[in-house]
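quick one, two chains, predict together pls
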Amino acid sequence: MRFAAIVDSAMLNFALRNLFRHTGRTALTMAAIVAGVVGLMLSGGFVRDIFAKLGESIIHSQSGHLQVSRAGFQENGSRRPEHYLIGDPARLEARIAAVPGVADVMARISFSGLLNNGRSDVAIVGEGIEPAKETRLGTSLSIIAGRRLRADDATGAMLGDGVASTLKVAPGDRVTLMLATEGGALNTLDLDVVGVFRTFSKDYDARAVKIPIAAAQEVLNTAGASTMVVSLARTQDTASIAATLGSTLAGQGLEVWTWEALNDFYAKTVKLYERQFGVLRAIILVMVLLSVANSVNMSLFERVPEFGTMRALGDPASYIVRLVLVECVLLGVIGATVGVGIGSLLSAIISYFGIAMPPPPNSDVGYTAQIALVPGIVAGAFAVGVVATGLAGIPSALRAVRMPVVDALRQAI
Amino acid sequence: MPSAGPAVETNSKGPRLAVCVEDLSKDYALGDERVVALANVSLNIEKGVFLALAGPSGSGKSTLLNMIGCIDTPSRGRVFINGQDVSGRTPDQLAGLRARTIGFVFQTFNLFPVLTAEENVEYPLHHVDEIGRRERRERVRHFLHVVGLTNYARHRPNQLSGGQRQRVAIARALVAHPEIVLADEPTANLDHRTGRNILRLMRRINRETKVTFIFSTHDPQVIRMADRRVDLEDGQIVRLGVRARSDWRYAFDRARDGDDA
């Protein structure tokens, strides 16, 4: 059926005039819609900002956007990382760097061992890194003491907050790293603590040690790397570039992992918040529905004689139902549009000042939250405003046309 | 002239009759009681007649008018409009019949408050596809002129007096060129003089257009203006087919009072 057959200009004109027949009541109904839309935009934008900040923090403090490693390394490599080494990291780096959208490629080599301060040991999970490139990637890594590793730090080490406090060491102290080489021999390396860092993950900070990749390769007696960490120009290109890299490197025993796949807890966190937000959205929908339904009901009840007149004059029941729905949808569209405007303004104001947030669970780092204006959330909030108002009118419209014409007319007397 | 008795030969009477009511009854429950609003009413109404349904409040005249207007359904009996039985039709079919055949004038005017006088008059035409915009406008202008409200076309109902509102309602009832106009107590909410003027206007239109007018009233002075009357009491016809006013008397009254409705 054509739109014009459902709603003609005369009906639109009639519906608009009916809407503004009681401006006070219309304003109240609209206020309920606006409040609902604004509530959804702010809560949705807030949650989305949390996701984005958490994601970027993970990317820029730990995993990068993508990691390329030997097949099986991500599942089993933590126990025996030396078995999953990439033999010629420089060549692989060049191939990855040639893919459009890739900003940086850096090699890491993983190891596990003991770190000793001369008095006690602590079990650590270490990484040999390329300091200059990691500095460019690691914008979310907080240095709480000392400084970052530099390219000329031949035997420097950055310790996670938890490692440093367990060993009671600070920048300037010396520690000894003990580990097993690929061949099974025990090897040691004296390191100078240059800095102490903190990430979003307290667990990670309790075991993490970063040293220059050259030093790690020397102590492990290898020229290889465990993984190639890829930094992208834009986070939203992660999936497409992962697919491109996957096909480029197919058949070479390599795997491409996205940051989301590498950080399972992120997906779980998102799922948890999404579920909570879904419930919130449902509650707001019901609240808008109830307040709008109440107001619409009241308004339509007063117009029962008018509907009786319309039917006496020859309007079929379907015309009246359509008219009521058009009125409700128009009200919803106007209310939701105003809501989106006010929601956008409030988002901008709140984001300008920011919301100081306490450290999330398993973290010591607080952050400043903002309200993300995401098209999907704005569209969803708008749709909720329109749909809730449209739905609110249906029972009243059906009730109005089910009443016998003569009974409807009698209410005018 | 209206006549009592069932419409035995519906087909043969059809062309002459605007309305034929056959053994019509209406009762409804009021708490535990059964109230009889109409009891076995039969009535034939010829085309072009200006007929008054008279009787005190609760006599059943509005109920009968509602049945004829197809806005209420009988408990028993049948209603024929232009020789066609309307029983068994769906609500939408009845709505279509009303749109094409019947115009309504209500006691409380029932104008749409958000529409102007001309938009109110135009309203019944919005489902009539075969009438173009130009003809629509001409019809509205014509009927506003007929009821003497050309200068009030852009006024909303709340800017009009009671008499003016009822005239807009009359124009609205006529705009789709119905064969029957039903008016339920059209003067009840008007002062006596305005009510008489409204009736004169309706009478004049009836004479000029030959549209059948059926109206209910309990005002004896208004009843006298009809040229046919049917008296109801307790849901039954007690007097039928009385000529309320002769044609020469009508012409005399008209000359005396003028058409100032």
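Residues 3-57+267-410 of chain A form one domain.
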